[in-house]
Amino acid sequence: MSASSVSAPERLPFRDPDLPLDKRVDDLLARLTPDERLAMLHQYAPGVPRLGLADFRTGSEALHGVSWLGVATVFPQAVGLGATWDEELVHAVAEATSVELRAFHYHRPTSNGRGVNSLQAWAPVLNLLRDPRWGRNEEGYSEDPLHTARLGEAFCRGLRGDDPRFLRAAPVLKHFLAYNNEDDRCTTSSGVRPRVLQEYDLAAFRPVVASGAATGAMAAYNLVNGRPCHVSPLLAEELRRWAEPTGHELFLVSDAEAPSNLVDPEHYFDDHAESHAAALKAGIDSFTDHGEDSATPIGRLREALERGLIDQSDVDRAVRRQLAVRFRLGEFDPDLDPYAGIGPEVIDHPEHRALAARAAAESVVLLKNDGLLPLSGSPRVAVIGPLADSLYEDWYSGTMPYQVTVADGLRERAGDVVCVEGADRIALRCRTSGDLLGGTTFHVVEWGDDVVTLRCAETGGYLTAKDGPLAIGERVIKSWEVHETFRLEADAAADGDTVLLRGVHSGRYAALGPDGAVALTAETPEEAERWHRELLLDGAGEARAAAAAADVAIVVLGNHPLINGRETQDRTGIALPETQEALLRAVAAVRPETALVVMSAYPYAVDWADEHLPAVVWTSHGGQDTGRGLASVLFGDVDPSGRLPQTWYRGDDELPDPLDYDIIKAGWTYQYHRAAPLYAFGHGLSYTEFDYADLELSTSEVDQTGEVEVTVSLTNCGLRPGSEVVQLYVRALGARYEAPVLRLADFRKLSLAPGERTTLGFRLPVDRLAHWDVATGAFTVDPGDYEIIVARSAEDLVLTAPLTVTGPAPAPRAFVDHPTRAIDFDDHANITLTDATRTTGDAVTPTDQSRPATLSFRRADLTGAIGVTAEVSRVDGNDEARLEFHLADRSLAVIDVPVTGGPYTWTTVVADVAEGVTGVHDVRVTLHGNFRLSTFSFTSSP
């Protein structure tokens, strides 16, 4: 139902399209009663019939096509779109997605029968792919902030359309901020020091918001520095501040149930009225909480009003932001809205099908090739593996209108294609009753950590525990709780063919009930039923036979997007599932002409394949046309133009802890990781050869506010047309801070015909060389020497040019009569970053209280210092608590920390500084015991 179909006065001022937007919003807001305004703070905002306002719902999922609303075009996962490095393509994908979303809005019913499908698109995801084990790795574009921001802005612009007044869809950026782990995501805190915050996590969001391309953002589930993102001051201090010059405020939404999480499980606030009030005041405008039950969250907000925790102006501010977006979406001007005429025929349109195939092809990355690819002629092809003839939807996929699997795509290009899954077919016979489980046999596929699916050999349905007794269920796994995964655990007391069947979701074992039904009811192995595992078909043997009879084997391995690495669950490692690795080696043993295709939502450590196989290829779960796009690359119809959007680490490379968000000290991503990767960020091969030459800078010396023109020539010296991604990196030499090994500063994707030569120009503002100076709390470009590097990847550096930045040398850090935040350290050890208060400020505390925690502050000017003060808090006095200040050769001051009674109860402690201290020094601050430190200052007077 649109506003035009609701009976209401038509020419009230808010209905006048000639009035400025803010005047129309003000008029409508003034006509709403306080209760009507309050009700609009929930995700399901009710209509106001007396004013002609329809129901309004925030949020439709649109990450790589419209999802959850029915059949729609499904494009490659976001990480696959990231691999294209193609802003024009990403823009086109978003445009097609928003056009289909408009069609769903006008022509398809909602799931609950209320209102219309929302035009507020909850996409794109700008969280950086810091850790490849993140369960939602598939949702992000890249591990690099510039790359992510460029593609994120392109996607936003594609969603919103080009009309200067009306939005085709309203893009909402996800998930603010520093969200990159799933395990315990609602209670874990991402420790983000200021340099990481400014140079990395915020850097992915800042350009997109500042460009005006986004209309809103969603807060993340996690905490940052001990404070939940839904009450973070960064919502106002950063996000909203960036948007101010655009002339439009951001409309901020909560993630599902996150407002309630503030009380339980986070226990950050004592009650829900207090927590909801804090979220509203911090900047959350719409509460996605309790599903369609608006009464509960609105009741909490009403209580907050009655208790004086919020006032009417807090409510009005949020409602005004919602109304502004609704006006821009054309709700109140259907006759003027240029997108109002979009019809249902655009869903699964032929042009969108062609775009899906193009995106699938462009997202393919050729990781290794010793000449096996491209395939030519009409080879006999054996396509093998659990993903050879299957496409899977992730949680945010739409419903595919059709599926072209890898086997399908190869059949279209090669006449003689044999497809085998390589999975064992087994029977599980009950030791007690002698009956077959499910009365059938199963194909068993392992997805890592010994987790398997059991698929009925007759119907293709999965064994499931969803409805109680074990039964054969649907052919598709797509539910929030996955009940179709099991472990077959050996019975140590019996022969090798006897197993116990354990459900992964419940953790319980299968047992035989009194009625003969089998259900997951046994809590212990002793209570579990025993099953005789009978091998009916050796999957690896079948694969070997198929490969031996073929000219080439294509082995397609990877992950199921809803198993072992998904929303709410991180991966435990980066190795291929054990049985998949064994299958690959078995095939390669009989068919040396084997190419590995990894179809996955994240990187794998495929060290063995890289060493032993002639070709390795990666594709994300590429949507409905995955197979056609992949086949076009394998046969050379198109040049492989994808490049990796994140580092693929080696299997023996010990990755940092998943909760270590300090990319600088931990050594995350190509920027700070020191060990050579298996495949580098930006890596991807072509079927042709490109030659780089003539790297030139417009100047070899520039001041701190200038810019440099960079030119380089590129020639396709091969015999085939091809695509290249020219990557421009920068590097600081001899920096006074821990500078990145490299940092991406620009990139350009282009295609060249055989023999074609072109010259590319890049405009490089000097601020691309900047780092966050913790001493001044601002970005700065230090004078000194830098390198401008043109590269094929972060490991394949082709040409380098020196650049000198001129300007005054940075002054020493002001330490005397200048408060210093403890968090503004240069280095640290054994430190946890936490909150100073529930609303603002950061502090530090020892991670392991049995060991000293250390902060290092470099080049601090102590001239004139005679004393030191510090702001500390301490809950109890069970152990010693002491704060020490040191130079390299002596102690400056020692302060005993008193009990203050609570983590947010602060007191000032003071001490004299050792005599004779002057000049510039490196200062070390040491914390002994359980307390927090927020700021300190050396003083020049008593």
Keywords:
single chain; 942 residues; six-stranded antiparallel sheet; 19 helices; 48 strands
Summarize the structure in words.
With 942 residues, this protein is an alpha+beta fold. The protein is built from 19 helices and 48 strands. It has a 6-stranded mixed beta sheet with strand order 11-26-25-24-12-13, sandwiched between helices. Helix 4 packs parallel to helix 5. The longest helix has 21 residues, at 87-107. The protein starts with 20 loop residues before the first helix and ends with a strand. The model is unreliable at 1-9 (pLDDT under 50).
What order do the helices and strands come in, and which of them pair?
Elements: H1 21-31, H2 34-39, E1 44-45, E2 56-57, E3 60-61, H3 78-84, H4 87-107, E4 120-122, H5 145-160, E5 170-176, E6 189-190, H6 194-210, E7 216-219, E8 223-224, E9 227-228, H7 234-243, E10 251-253, H8 258-261, H9 272-282, H10 295-306, H11 312-328, H12 350-362, E11 365-369, E12 381-384, H13 406-413, E13 417-420, E14 424-430, E15 442-446, E16 452-456, E17 463-464, E18 471-472, E19 486-490, E20 498-503, E21 509-512, E22 518-522, E23 531-537, H14 539-548, E24 552-558, H15 578-590, E25 594-599, H16 607-612, E26 615-619, H17 626-634, H18 663-666, H19 669-672, E27 690-697, E28 701-703, E29 707-716, E30 722-732, E31 743-752, E32 757-765, E33 771-773, E34 778-780, E35 784-791, E36 797-806, E37 813-814, E38 820-821, E39 827-829, E40 831-835, E41 842-846, E42 853-861, E43 867-873, E44 882-886, E45 891-896, E46 907-912, E47 920-928, E48 932-939
Parallel strand pairs: 3-4, 4-5, 5-7, 6-8, 7-10, 12-13, 12-24, 24-25, 25-26, 28-36, 37-42
Antiparallel strand pairs: 1-2, 8-9, 11-26, 14-15, 14-23, 15-16, 17-18, 19-20, 20-23, 21-22, 27-29, 29-32, 30-31, 30-35, 33-34, 35-36, 38-48, 39-42, 40-41, 42-47, 43-46, 43-48, 44-45, 44-47
Helix pairs in contact: 1-11, 4-5, 4-12, 5-6, 6-7, 9-10, 12-17, 13-17, 14-15
